[in-house]
Amino acid sequence: MTIQQIIELKKAESLPGNFGLPFLGEALGLFAGEELFYWDKFRRHGNMFKTSVLGKKYAFLIGTEANSIVFKEQADCFSSRLGWWFLEPIFGNGLLMQDGAEHAVARRLMYPAFHSKTVTTYFDVINSIVQEYIKDWGTRGVIPLASDFRKLTLIVASRLFLGTQTIEEVEKTCDWFTQLVAGKLAILRWDNPLTLYGRSQNARRKLHEYLRQTINRRRDSSKEYSDVLALLMNAVGEDGSRLSDSEIIEQTLLLLVAGHETTATLLSWLMFELAAHPEWTSKLRQELNQVAGDELKVEHLKQLTQMTNVLKEIERLYPPLYGIPRGVVKDIEYNGYQIPAGWVVVVSPMLTHRMESIYQNPDCFDPDRFAPPREEDKKYPFALAGFGHGPHSCLGFQFAQMEMKIILSHLLRQYDWSVIPEYEKITPVLAPSKFLNKLRASICPK
Description:
Shape: globular
Structural class: alpha+beta
Mean pLDDT: 92
Number of helices: 21
Low-confidence stretches: none
């Protein structure tokens, strides 16, 4: 960059938007509106805008070029910990909060549990849990999708990450996880039982103690374990170092949250969209019968290409993270603006996924957009970013894909369903978080 170009750079403060109130900024609007805050700013200001939240200045950069810079080209200019600062008191110093060498070491230690070859060994366990869990869905009538899928995916995560859990333990830990995650939207960070944040912190303490007791029981037992917790307990770094109990707990806690919450959310919206598009339910059933016949096996999963495209479309319409923040640690230049260290940059899979310049009729459910010859997600790098990209991409992506395919396959074989609220009344769904816990499915045997 020439000196003249540097001089001509605009300061980030001149970005469209405003900083809101002193210190508080626009925190009330962001935490209350969630996705709607993003949409309002995007419609008013376009692909770049600023705000501030609790004393921190934010630059929102929307689109594939911004995704490329944050996830790849200038990834070393950003910090995940400084982006997710508001979650550290809730989720602790797990993989999400780590940067640089610390993150690389931890990810390397955990990677073997999520390697594609290892993931395939989880098939039988997931398959049996799913069959047992949904066997009575046809007699239950109306099912609250999000809470039931959370319970199912937590059973799977608990069994594979922690070993066997009783139903009572799953019920208890599921309630704790729900309370823990709710704390992320607390503006008042007062650790008191009367506050949302206080209840979240209490749940965090209970989960920590539960995991600590689990670790201690294992150390006192002669039984050998082969789950993710065992991997972390036995992991040895290149320098011979081991993870402390606190580090094991923090990493396991984050894995359990990520391993059930996002998958449950995607499955809920999957049921919603398929209920409104029976032609796709028929296509998936036909493909499943052709590929797997009477018995689903692990080798069939990669052959379910239409199901893969349906899951991509759910990721596009309902990305697990509607915004991904990164703290700026080195000044960056973007589209004529200089964004200094100390700011936070936010990229948004949700807004990027609905851009007409990338996706045709972006509000419509259309899985064929990912099939040849269209392959709209390949027109631009980082056009589909629901699970992130780069060093901080979702470690459990393949695990989640396998789990969702297994669950959907059994549902397709056994049941028909309808979902409320009715499709026509809430689509396009621009704020999934506002409707997720309202989704109800009426289930009947085929």
